[in-house]
Amino acid sequence: MDLLECLRHVDPASCSYDEWCQVGMALKHEGYQVPAWDSWSARDSARYHAGDCEKKWESFREETDTPVTGGTIVELAKRRGWVPDTGDAVLDWNDTLVCDAGKQEGVIIDRNWVEGQEVHPPENKDWNPREELARYLEALFQPDECVGYVTECFEDSDGRLKPGGKGVYARTAGEIVEDLKRYKDMGKAIGDYDQACGAWIRFNPLDGKGVRNANVTSFRYALIESDSMPIDRQNALIRALELPVAAMVHSGGKSVHAIVHIDAKDYNEYRQRVDSMYKACEKNGLLLDKQNRNPSRLSRMPGVMRAGKKQFLIATNFGKESYETWLEWYEEQNDDLPEFENLEAVWDRMPPLAPPLIEGVLRQGHKMLISGPSKAGKSFAQIEMAIAIAEGARWMGWKCSAGKVVYVNFELDRPSCLHRFADVYAAMGLNGAGRSNIEIWNLRGQSMQLDKLAPKLIRRAQRVKPMAIILDPIYKTLTGDENSAEQMAIFCNQFDRVCSEVGCSVIYCHHHSKGAQGGKKAMDRASGSGVFARDPDALLDLIELPLRDSHYDYLKVRAACRAIIAFLDKQAQGWRDDAGLDDFLSKPALMECARKEGRLSASQLAELDAAVAEAERHASHITAWRISCTLREYERPDDRDVYFSWPVHVADDSGALKDIRPEIEVGGRIIQPRDKSDGSKKETKEKEERQAIIDAYTLIASEKEPDDDGMVRVTVQDFVEHSEEYFGKELKRASMYKKLRKFDDFTIEDSIVAPAENEKS
Question: Distance (Å, rounded) from C-alpha 495 to C-alpha 498?
Answer without folding.
Answer: 5
